[in-house]
Structures are given as structure tokens and as C-alpha cells.
Amino acid sequence: MIYDYVVIGAGSAGCAVAARLAESGEHEVVLLEAGGPDDLDLIHVPAGIPFLFKSAVDWDFATEPQKQLKGRADYAPRGKTYGGTSSINAQVVQRGAHGSYDEWAEAGNKGWAFADLLPIFKHIEHNERGASEWHGVGGPINVADQRDPNPVTLACIEAAIEAGYARNDDFNGVGQLGFGMHQVSQKEGTRCSAARGYLHPSLGRENFTVVPFAQASRLTFDGRRCTGVVYRDPAGEHTVTARREVVLSAGAFGSPQLLLLSGVGGRHQLERHGIDLVAHLPGVGENLYDHVMVPTNHYCTQPITLAAAGTEEQAARFANEKMGLLTSNLAEGGGFVQIGEGNVPDVQFHFGPLFFLHHGASNPEGHGFVAFTILGRPRSVGRVELRSADPAAKPVIDPNFLDDERDLDGLVAGVRIVQDILGSAALNGYRGDPYPAAAMSRDDEEVRDYIRDYAQTLYHPVGTCAMGSGQMAVVDHELRVHGVDGLRVADASVMPYIVNANTNFPSIMIGERCAELMLG
Ligand SMILES: Cc1cc2nc3c(=O)[nH]c(=O)nc-3n(C[C@H](O)[C@H](O)[C@H](O)COP(=O)(O)OP(=O)(O)OC[C@H]3O[C@@H](n4cnc5c(N)ncnc54)[C@H](O)[C@@H]3O)c2cc1C
Predict the structure, then answer these.
(1) Measured between alpha carbons, how far is 181 from 157 in angstroms, rounded to an integer?
(2) What's the rounded Cα separation, in Å, for the pair 86 and 84?
């Protein structure tokens, strides 16, 4: 099989790049996806996320035991279906601070300053609030205000205002500081993933082929030129050839793994696994950044939270009106505060009408609500490595959470902010006891200990095929892999440093930008 372009991975970025290449009408495009079509009903129910964890549409990765988290290994879900992780995520729409991108550009990545990217961000969305200086209409991803926000989330926002923080009704406008409700990637009360926005409308195109259950096992090279991809599907092993280019969009764990399996990576690691070297790129798999977060949970004194989402009444409300608890994206509201230096807010917060401890696995019975404290600008850096030369083996994932002591200090400072907010009178009608009580401790040592027990990923791994020009860079500013021809990477892995907010729109933007660069 021969195509002009082969795209690997139908996730947030892969759907965007493949659909835009196909849309141009000039090229034959094939998209290989390890998972199947996104036909599981729960994908489309916004509040269905907990049921997608460890399901057939989740890669179900885990980190190595984390030294600073008392040796706990953290669960690391990633979507394995059309839409990738955008099919299992919490639908919060954030672009990241303008300054996050300006830093990438200042590091030498021409074309990646926020002013360069704003037109792309506008092009991605159909914002139901209408077009403005900051927002677009007519794009593939529907951006909506929440149809049925939970009263306890609204009370959390009022509590933040009462605690002295500004109100912010648009985190994707002039700035991020302050608190408010999130806009969500939903349409008429159901999830609007990258598959729904980009892939489904393109499926009928004659020049576009999508292959489900096709897991790429390695790239093929003729010398240093990437010529195609070997993949396995239920029928066996196949090879596709790219006349022009291969685009790797397998995500922050999948993309470095596939490069390494194909001989593109650090010489020593490849030798260890008996893989022939194509290009010595020591940065492949390094530079792993993720947002670490700690949850602060309280019982809710009113029976209004997602603990009641499974009732027949709620199922009927969702089925008939697309209203009720099942439209909740869980992380309904939140905000940003700046505690350190610079012009990029460094602590982010989410509020949700549910208990959430250890990804939901340690939740108590009953009604509860949660505030997440998220480190927006972590300093700890980790890596992804091959576990074996077997493409079916899950990679070694070590985010090194809280390795840099300043990260723990930042989380403690953030937890203090949450404690003040949650103590405000606006929550008097909802606030029961904290669970566990240590989450509200005023003793610094106790809070540190609590963080080591309960900190986890906010599910934003990035950076493992970093864009740049130094020795550790993997792609250049046009996303071309250094040292080889005919190969680009487009997904969260190319971020040189993590943006300070949720990473779905930034990943889609990277896919859009890649297509723009390829099509000229
Ligand atoms: C539970 C959860 C909640 C989240 N909530 C939010 C949120 O509210 N807002 C937000 O902005 N972000 C959120 N995120 C993060 C965001 O969704 C991701 O950062 C983003 O989707 C990453 O996009 P990507 O294109 O880099 O990778 P992905 O979307 O993960 O795409 C990678 C694709 O490649 C496929 N693939 C991998 N390896 C292979 C292979 N060898 N062969 C073929 N295919 C392969 C995968 O199956 C997948 O489809 C959340 C993530 C999770 C897990």
C-alpha cells in the first residue's frame, strides 16, 4: 500500500493533522490507529470518564514507583480509540498562557509565539459565545459553556471570589488569572473529541483511509530517509509506504517509544536492546514533564453530586434533554494564581462535584466535592525509555514527580490557597468534613506528608520529543525529526516545556500547525 502521507495515531493531534492533509484534496492520506472506532456509548457521555479508566479504550499505562510519592506507581491513562486521549479526557478547554508559547519562541522556535498561534487556536474552535478578538466560530471543535453546572461547583467559584481572587469568565482570552467556570469541548451536551470534530466529517473522503486496530511497530528507513511504517492488525503484519512523509502522532509515551523501536534515539539505549542505529538522537524520551496535582476532598452535605449520576432519573434527563449530572465534565470550574516570578500563572485549580482520590480508586461512599491543586510549571523532569525491543511491551515511564524540592513547596503553597477558599462562607451550605482530614491540616509537615500520599498526575505528559535546536532536541521548529528525512512528530511530545494549563487544545493546535507547515 502506498500513500502520500502516513499518519500514526488518531489522537488529539493526529486527527487534526490527518484530516487537514486529507481536506486539501491533493494527497492520499492514511491514518493508522492502534485502537478501534469511538463507538463505545460512555465515550460520548461527558461524566462517563471514570468508566473509561482501564477499559478497552485505555492503554492503561503506569509509571515507575515514584520515590517522592512514597514509592507509589501512578496510573497513567491514555486513550486508545479514534480521538485518542480527547475521547477519554475531562473536556476542559484551555490553551495555556500566552507567555508559555512566547517562551518556546524565545528559545529559538520560530513561528511558535502566542501571536503566531492565536489564528490557529481560533481556527480550531466553534465557540458558542461567538467570534471575537480571542475566539473563532466555524471550527471543528465545539466549545460550549456548561449546560447544567453543579451548584457546589458554582459555590466553589463564589468561595474563591470571597477569598479575594478575581472572577475570570474566559481563561482563553486576555489572561488566565482568577476563578470561573470552564468552557468545555462539548456539543449539545455530549463530548466533542478530536475524532468527532476532525475525523468523522473526513471519513467519506476518497483520498483518506483510516485503519483501526493498526498498531505501528516500527518505521522503515532507506538510509536516513523514512519510507513508511510496519504495523500489526488482527490479520497480521503489514507495511505501508509514504511517497512524501510520515507523521508520528502517537502521544508523549507512544511517539518516543516508536522512534526508539525504529533506531532513532540515544545510542546506548538502542545498543542495550539490540536495535540498529539509524540516527543518534539522545533526547528521544527525555524531557518528560507532567502536571502533578493533589486533591482536597470534602463530604457534601447536600445529595446533589455525581454520586447520584447513576440513577434512572439522571439517565432519563440525559437521554431526553441532554441535561443533568451526566453532562458534567467532572472538572467543572477552576482558576489560576501566580505565586512565583514571571508572567505565566504557575498554580492551577479545578473544582468538581465528586470525590477524587487516587484516580477515584480510594473514594469514600457518599456525596463529596473536590478541589485539585495543580503545579502549572513543574521543575521535575522525567523520561520514557524502552522496556524491551518488543513493540507490544509498555514503555518505562518515569515522570520523577516532586524530584525538585521546589515542586513540593509550590504544591504546599497551592494547598494553602485551596484551604482558604474552601473555608469561605459561600460553601457553608455544602461543606461537610474533609476526607481525609489531613488535607485541611494547617501543619506544613502534615500537608507535605498528605501530598506524598495523594499527589498524582493530572494526565498531561509532554515533551519527550522536544522541539528545538540543541543536542537534546528531537524535532526542529517545523516538527521535522533531526538527522533523518521524511519524518515529523506532531503531538504533545514536541512541547519543549509544558504549557501551564490543560493540554488537549495545545495538542490539537500542534496537529493543525503541522498540517499548515506540510501544506505550505
Ligand atoms: C483522564 C484525562 C483527563 C484529561 N482531561 C483534560 C482536559 O479536561 N482538558 C485538556 O485540555 N486535556 C485533558 N487531558 C489531556 C489531553 O487530553 C491530552 O494531553 C491530549 O489528548 C494529548 O494528545 P496527543 O495527540 O498528544 O495524544 P493522544 O490523544 O493520546 O493520541 C495518541 C494516539 O496514538 C495512538 N497510538 C499510540 N501508539 C500507537 C501505535 N504504535 N500505533 C498506532 N497508534 C498508536 C493512540 O491510541 C492514540 O489514539 C486529559 C487526559 C486524561 C487521560
Answers:
(1) 7
(2) 5
The tens digit of pLDDT for each residue in 102-161 reads 999 999 999 999 999 999 999 999 999 999 999 999 999 999 999 999 999 999 999 999
pTM score, two decimals?
Answer: 0.99
Ligand 1 atom index nearest CA of 505: 11
Q: Which amino acid is located at 438 in the chain? A: A
Buried b (16+ CB within 10 A) or exposed e, 57-75: bbbebebbebebbeebebb
484-508 pLDDT, tens digit per residue, is 999 999 999 999 999 999 999 999 9
Confirm or reject: Cβ of 94 under 6 Å from ligand 1: yes
The residue type of 394 is K
Helices 405-422, 444-454: axis angle to 10 degrees equals 100
**Residue whose C-alpha is closest to residue 2's, from 216, 221, 239:** 239
- The position carrying cell 463529596 is 368
Give me the amino acid identity at 452: R
* Relative orientation angle of helices 114-124 and 98-106, to the nearest 10 degrees: 130
Alpha carbon 231 to its chain centroid, in Å, reads 25
Instruction: Indicate the Cα dihedral angle 247, 397, 217, 22, nearest 10°.
Output: -20
Which of the residues are catalytic? 460
Helix or strand or coil: residue 200? helix
| Closest atom of ligand 1 relative to the 507 alpha carbon | 23
Buried b (16+ CB within 10 A) or exposed e, 259-296: bbbbbbbbeebbeeeebeebbebebbbbbbbbbbbbbb
Give Dmax over CA atoms of the chain in angstroms.
Answer: 68
Fold of the domain built from segment(s) 147-181+292-377+403-454: Cholesterol Oxidase; domain 2 (3.30.410)
Q: Does the Cβ of 17 fall within 6 Å of ligand 1?
A: no
User: If DSSP codes are grouped into helix, strand and coil, which group holds residue 202?
Assistant: helix
Span from the CA of 450 to the centroid of ligand 1 (angstroms): 29
Closest residue (by CA) to atom 20 of ligand 1?
Answer: 504
Would you kindly state where each structural domain of the chain is located, as residue ranges?
Answer: 147-181+292-377+403-454
CA-based torsion, 53, 505, 251, 501: positive or negative: negative
Residue 329 contacts residue 150 (beta carbons within 8 Å): no
The average pLDDT across 383-396 equals 98
Cis peptide before 119 (omega within 30 of 0): no
Task: Determine the residue of 59, 75, 85 to mutate for testing ligand 1's pocket, defined as the one with the most ligand atoms within 8 A of the Cβ atom.
Answer: 85
| DSSP states of 286-330 | --BB--EEEEEEEEESSS-SGGGTTSHHHHHHHHHHS-SGGG--S
Q: Which atom of ligand 1 is nearest to the CA of 491?
A: 26
255: left (phi over 0), alpha (psi -120 to 50) or beta: alpha
Centre of ligand 1 to C-alpha 195, Å, is: 12
